User: Fold this.
Amino acid sequence: MTLLVVVDATPYGPVPSGARRRAEALLPRLARARPDAVFEVHWARDGGGPGPACTGDRLVHATDDVSCRGGAWRLWRRARALRRRHREAPYGHLLVDHGPVVVPDRVRTVVTVHDLRFLHGYGGRLRALYGRARYGAVLRRAAVVVAVSDAVRDELSSAYGLRDVVVARNAAEAPFSPAARADAAAVAARLGARAPYVLVVGRDEPRKALRAAVAAWREARARAPDLGLVLAGAAGLAVEGAVVFPSLGDGDLAALYAGASWTMVPSRYEGFSLPVAESLACGTPVVASDVAAHRALVADGATGVVLVPPPAADAADAWPGAADVLLGARPALVAPPRSTWDDAAAVVAARL
Assistant:
């Protein structure tokens, strides 16, 4: 008997994100791990669709007439569409990110939780209200709740009393590997990034605290004038003396990781933090904020991470202690956490 697994990928926008990277890494692996299933993946009309690696014999992609930025409107539209889809062609499994959960008495819904940012003041008032008033009920209706890290699992237990959360950790894979070092110099020269430099990867939003990383670099450069800064993914952020890329392909990003002296990750809150894992996989150490997600990566075997207290919310232009790390000796051992995307796919596939 062939299982039909409907995957709601409509929350994913066209810009790179940890959630999108996870979906594109797991879906082909899930299709291989479950040869008895067909995966019908629904994307938003403005979500950019699947990446080139998100293909497989049992992966079928469809575009829905909703926006990835639709918020509550998108959730309502998706719930209605999924109920109709169930009537048209009954399916046994639904993979979603933050909901909706539909016909739970007939559909086995697997909800992936990437983070709980709305409980920490990030994501807007409506999302915070939904997170506090409704999200726990949504999760309790699901057949399986999957967390992307031990930190998210622990937070789900604390915030909502969930006890049976499954952990399928995020990971880093090729081209994020030591092999990227072979192309580091050529890519840096082509992109105008002159070594030595430190790298910051992420969107310019309050919880990522990119401006605190910029402040730490400026403090370090006062003592090491040749130290450059490269910002990747920070669309709209202009920094004098820095090289800024709104978007980069994975190959170029991996080469920039490999060529950097350090990667800075100053986030005030994370669910997992792929830049930490990706940088370590390329052999480059990380100065990271001392938050639960980063401590969980160290517990999972990551080496080469120096933890510094996170930037204060009311001091966006300072990250005390980070500059001293940038100017100090690099760790002798650098390695990513032990988890792999294959491990994550096996965990999820076993719960379908």
Summary: The chain has two domains: 3-171+340-351, 178-326. DSSP finds twelve helices and 13 strands in the chain.
